[in-house]
Amino acid sequence: MSSAVGADPAVVGPYLAATLGDERWREVTVDLVAAGMSNLTYVVTPAGGSADDAVILRRPPTGAVLATAHDMAREHRVISALGPTPVPVPRTLHLCTDPEVLGAPFYVMERVVGLHVVDEIPEGYADTPELRRQIGDGLIDVLAQLHAVDPASVGLDDFGRPEGFLARQVRRWTKQWDATRDRDRPGMDALAARLAETVPQTQRTGIVHGDYRLDNCLLDPERPGGIRAVLDWEMSTLGDPLTDIGMLFVYWPEAGETRPVLSPVTTLPGFPTRREIAERYAQQAGVGLEDLDWYVGFAFFKFAAIVAGIVARSAAGAMAGKDTSGYADRIDPCVELGRAALDDGAL
Questions:
Q1: Which of 44, 152, 202, 337 is the most exposed place for a label (fewest CB within 10 A)?
Q2: d(C-alpha 20, C-alpha 14), whole Å
Q3: Which residues fall within 8 angstroms of residue 200, CB to CB, at 6 or more apart?
């Protein structure tokens, strides 16, 4: 048995054997997935089994700061609800709400075989501009599919409070920043105040992912542009779908740009520009983009607050061995990008 902080295989194995009704899970190996800086993701494999037999276990970080961002029941619920829709999600297998088992609630889902692109595209995959364009288009098409889902039709009509969503989001992430601030950062405080004063009118409401980006999706290994699964639903809720576009733009540098903490993959020839993304999404979703600058400015503020939370959890020893060196130095550049989006435009 391997050792994994937060998911002891001596506990996980017998628990899965009992709940799944299958003795092959009695002994397991548990491996922490390297990607991700918030909820912890583990690959659980039965003794003697192969990668094809493995399942995925998700639990909150071992020292969660903002409890609502690590609600396993909510994450399990939204993935389960989206299962019958066109939105590609893993099949959920079990939810455990008893914190006595692993020290926190957790859930288990199928392991989807797909390509996880983080910092670079593997050699031989999407190696032409045309294929890279298909990846970008595929990401937008799936996001539009998500936002087209009627929450009530999948039992998610009470999954959030769309009324006042944007103002509440600014307050929520300002509170997160206040709870985890590492030092005085006047620019962050000024950006928070400015966003609160200029909240736009929401055009439509829907299911919001909350952190939609390339490396929160698994790509089809055989067909660039195909999305096998959308992952990391920990911040999903009902609200303004344009917040997902704003956040996607944070993670979408173009050729010649460098941005803190972010992957350079989208700078490769062929990936659509942010303007092209916005136009494709607007056409599919039937929404206007006149307030897009605010959504991008807010997304950079939210991202900076998330980074501050990671820094705080790391300082508390709650990041399960992940390297967070230099993260604090990336907060102010994100704040500046948020201010620039408001002043100079997001595209």
A1: 152
A2: 10
A3: 166, 291, 294, 295
